[in-house]
Fold this sequence. Notes:
23-stranded parallel beta sheet, seven-stranded mixed beta sheet
Amino acid sequence: xxxxxxxxxxxxxxxxxxxxxxxxxxxxxxxxxxxxxxxxxxxxxxxxxxxxxxxxxxxxxxxxxxxxxxxxxxxxxxxxxxxxxxxxxxxxxxxxxxxxxxxxxxxxxxxxxxxxxxxxxxxxxxxxxxxxxxxxxxxxxxxxxxxxxxxxxxxxxxxxxxxxxxxxxxxxxxxxxxxxxxxxxxxxxxxxxxxxxxxxxxxxxxxxxxxxxxxxxxxxxxxxxxxxxxxxxxxxxxxxxxxxxxxxxxxxxxxxxxxxxxxxxxxxxxxxxxxxxxxxxxxxxxxxxxxxxxxxxxxxxxxxxxxxxxxxxxxxxxxxxxxxxxxxxxxxxxxxxxxxxxxxxxxxxxxxxxxxxxxxxxxxxxxxxxxxxxxxxxxxxxxxxxxxxxxxxxxxxxxxxxxxxxxxxxxxxxxxxxxxxxxxxxxxxxxxxxxxxxxxxxxxxxxxxxxxxxxxx
Length: 457
Ligand code: UD1
Ligand code: CA
């Protein structure tokens, strides 16, 4: 069986987005819109993918850089869908199988649906198969004109349609399977003699049918899949559907999502069984979460690696951090990039960390800033402790060894090192290294002036 290739049309600007960014690069569930049909085509078995790009072509190319089976065809001027596919034909040279044609702005089509279309197309030996839907209100779409035995004769665009044709409710989704050899031959004979002065891809069906080739339509099961995104309201709607699919897959794999409608999880995030996610949580980027974790409500997690039985309490914000088994953080903790928390570390409310490594069992329970720090195991960081890591020019390191007890309201002026098992008294400003097993204290002795308040009066 000859292979399957896919062409994804993505050269248009997307004027109705009213955006400086080309439409297909707007994100849905964390990834650009165009990545979704590309993924669906791959899932359906396409081994070669050609993206037709025009507006902001370099941005799109950059996104797919390194994906070897993705090729690009440049369409300088958008002269119509037929012209766009003609541009892609150069990249399909020597390919004799089935070409799937998709739109970059129809992101919800599923791989399984494309596979079904390709199977249908091949089992019937069709030359062209078009994915369609029956809409009560078909306004704006191309209409499927059929002859005997359900064969498709042509597709007529609304602007070119007669009164009678406009009453046809079967519409063109813009997604097709076409045999490559026929496509190459038909695409060069298109004309732009129509209401929009464009080269219509849909006209290949008319020429195929006239040559006696079998052209068929396959109605899609779920019309949601062929929804086009033209403006930001449709983008939000499509993203909502995509999120609910992602959440659905996670729930079926054993994750509890208390309120899927308010839980935002990006494509590609992995979460283990029996983890519970509370409402308002956002999990994005390259994030992996283990089993039996408790996350949220309203936790914001990006690009983190989180092991098992981790608790992330309300309102915590984490990025580029690593949390080992049994860690507990928050509520309202802020873990910034480079934070590594080993087993059973506890980070409490209003604690900010950055490039900070904590050994197993250490705690910073309240109100601290800990940056550029290496903290050993079983260390207690008292409330209000600050690593003074920045001298206005450079960042400096703080090292706190195993078993150290840091009292409340301590400032550690980096670079500085506190040796193992030492105790830093509350209120101390540490400016010198502390040897192991020592007490460090720097306080102005307290003076009580008796009767002072009465004298003031
Ligand atoms: C097209 C179909 C119509 C179908 C509808 C479904 C044609 C002639 N009409 O109409 O039957 O019902 O899709 O949504 O094909 N593009 C390019 N280069 C171009 C023109 C378009 O890359 O020169 C891309 C666009 O960026 C978009 C896609 O092709 O992703 C569809 O183009 P669009 O102009 O939106 O087609 P419609 O007029 O909606
Ligand atoms: Ca369109």
